[in-house]
């Protein structure tokens, strides 16, 4: 059992690399520290990505997210850092990370970061009547 955070992200081969499909994950227990006050900031992270050759392994994602618990970081910076690290590890066709931070000083903050491979276009959505 893992008993401490890690900045390593493990991957595994995409089981269907010839197909575009969306992987969605919610991480409701993200925490970091406010860099101004040192108080904890809480957020729900919503990750969506279209894998190319690699997928992120869930346990490694969990302990990676845990590594931010004692770090001071602005919402915008930490969301971009996580998206960049995930994109670097998996090289997805498309990645969107939404960080929905809990209220702080009467203000809710959401940060949305997207990364996509050059030339990749999503397929048209199917609408059923």
What topology emerges from the helices and strands here?
Layout: E1 11-13, E2 22-33, E3 40-50, E4 54-56, H1 58-66, H2 75-90, E5 94-104, E6 107-116
Task: Describe what this molecule looks like in 3D.
The protein has helices spanning 58-66, 75-90, and strands at residues 11-13, 22-33, 40-50, 54-56, 94-104, 107-116. The chain is of the alpha+beta class and 129 residues long. It has a single domain (11-116), classed as GTP cyclohydrolase I, C-terminal domain/NADPH-dependent 7-cyano-7-deazaguanine reductase, N-terminal domain (GTP Cyclohydrolase I, domain 2). The radius of gyration is 16 Å and the shape is globular. It starts with 10 loop residues before the first strand and ends in a 13-residue tail after the last strand.
| Largest sheet features | 4 strands, antiparallel
Q: How do the strands line up in the largest sheet?
A: 2-3-5-6
Helix content: 10-25%
Average pLDDT, rounded to a whole number, is 94
Cα distance spanning the termini: 48 Å
Radius of gyration: 16 Å
SSE order: EEEEHHEE
- Report the count of strand segments: 6
Secondary-structure-derived class: alpha+beta
Q: So what's the CATH class?
A: Alpha Beta
Q: What is the tally of helical segments?
A: 2
The CATH homologous superfamily is termed GTP cyclohydrolase I, C-terminal domain/NADPH-dependent 7-cyano-7-deazaguanine reductase, N-terminal domain
Strand share of the residues? 35-45%
Count of the domains: 1
Q: Any idea what the shape is?
A: globular
CATH architecture assignment name = 2-Layer Sandwich
